[in-house]
Structures are given as structure tokens and as C-alpha cells.
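re: ur question from earlier - yeah i can do the single chain one, its not a big deal. heres the input i used so u can compare w yours
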Amino acid sequence: MASSVGTLPIVDLSLLHSVSDANDPRLGPLVAQLDDVFSSTGFAYLVNAPLSFKHGDVFDLARKFFELGAQEKWKLAKRQFLTTNQNTYRGWFPPQAGSDNLKEGLDIGPPAGSISTPIVSPPKINLNEVTPLPDISGFPSKVHTLYDEMQQLSERLLDLLARALGSQGHFSSYMQDSLSTLRLLHYPPSQEKQQELICTPHTDSGLLTLLRQDNTGGLEVFTQEQEWVQAPYVPGSIVVNIGDLMARISGGRWVATMHRVRRVEKQTHLRSGLGRFSVPFFFEPGENCLVETIGRRGLGEGILYGDHVRQKMSTWIEFQDVVASDIPRSVSQVEVF
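and the output i got, formated as C-alpha cells:
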């Protein structure tokens, strides 16, 4: 296999199938490669990850959900979109009218009961709530298994990153009561030919993102050379990048890279009318985890993760205020399409 796709490197995780200790000398080259990736491009393709779910399995789950009728999805909508619903952080969000981020999604959190010390959250957004899931045979058990596998892979990568930063074990407390998010995303086919972007340029706000993308294409990364380059689909791969919080933890050693999604004229799924799918997994620490820069711990410069994520919500399209007249008061008022 090639060592890169364009300017984006390929990182082989084969050793993780047989080596479990992040401090094992055999993992030294992998640690060095990850350090180099996040110090330069900020993006890479992971291959041969220790996961049981195949690419097709993941997107079958996404398609099954997004093929549901409108009323079924609205039953799972976040409260800012359907005021009779109780869920605020987890659940479904619809495409936002007038936005350049033309997507709908389902935000899935930890399985019920996995948070050992629930925290009383401000009533507007409850970060610890249980995810409402659709009544699709086998769907809950499959997404929870997928979630658990992605969480375990994220934790193993974080152990390697702690070693790269010379601070083994730094992320152990981040894994307690983790609030990671598995997000199923759907970008419906756009009929607006003048609209070039279906997801505007941004950096991720958290620690670590693991992305499965379909073969539609459109993902682009902003390089150190100040150029936008394509990050095409690589069969069986997972795209990895870090967010603003991890760049902060590294003391600026690593970079959170800007990326966007461009509208693709000849989409692979356009003929079926389905559009583009992607499934990112965002590693998130617990709500009361104190996030501090390595080398500056105990200096009063840290931030609680719950405070950080709530500050960031104002910049996320799916959490911005919705015009009251656009919010249906009950599922029965939802237009069926």
C-alpha cells in the first residue's frame, strides 16, 4: 500500500491487533508517525484498525436510519427543533434552512448506565442524557457495539499520543465518564448548483475525530502550504484529525487543521437520491474532566470539558437558535415527505 494519498499520509495500525501496551518499544515507529502527522498535516488515513465493523456495515446503519420517514425522525429530534421532546444534546437534527451546512444527523452518546457519576447539568443542555434511538430491529445493539469499538480505538490512540508528548497516562482521567459522540450524517443531494460548499470551513473543537466517509467524495483539507487539497475515500480507511482542544493540550505542538466539504456534481448516490453519508466519532472526555496543557498542569489555566463544550455550542449550526415559527409543536404537525 502507498504511504500517502496526495499530501495526506497513511498510518498502518496493524500492530494494535497484537500489541496492547502503548509503551511497548515495537510501537515506537507508530508513535513517531502520529506525532509527525499532527505536527504537520493534522490529517491522516488510518488503515488495518482493530475493529470488527466493516465499512459497509457502518453505512448500512446510516442508510437504515436516514431512510426513515420524517415523522419517525422527528420523534428523536432535539428539543430546540421539537419543543415537546426532552432530549437536548443527543438525538436527531434536521437540515438548517438558509445554512451552508446542508446536513441532517443523529448524535449518539454512551449506552445507558455507562456514566458512573451523573452530573446535574443546566436544564437547557444535558450532556449526560441517554440517546433516543429509532425502533429499527437490531439498530440499538449495533450502534452501541460500534460506539464501544470506536471508543476503545480512540482510547488506545490517546495512550499513544500521550507517549508522543512524553506524558504517559496523561489522558487516563479523560476516559472516565467519557461523553464521546458517534454521529451519523447525511448530506442530501443539493439542487442549488451555485452552492459550492455543503459544510463550511472549520476546525473540530474537541480532542480526536475518527471519520468514516463514503465514496461520494467532497472532503477537503487546508494544508500548511495554504492550499485546499482533496481527501478522497480510501477503501477500508478511517480519516483521523485532532481538534482545537488537543492542540491546546499539546501546547501548540500539534495543529487542528481546517477542513470543509465541497458539493460534488456527479455524486455516486445521486441517481438513488440519497446524497452523501459520513460517520464521524468525536472522542469527548467527561463533563467534569479538567483539561490542561501538558507541562502546565496545576497552574489554574485548565478548563472543565463541560464548560468548554457549552461555550462552543454557539458556533455549531445544530445548536444555534431556531426561529420559533419554524419549530413544530408536536410530531403530528410535521409535514410528511
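The first helix runs from residue 28 to 39. not sure if urs matches, ping me
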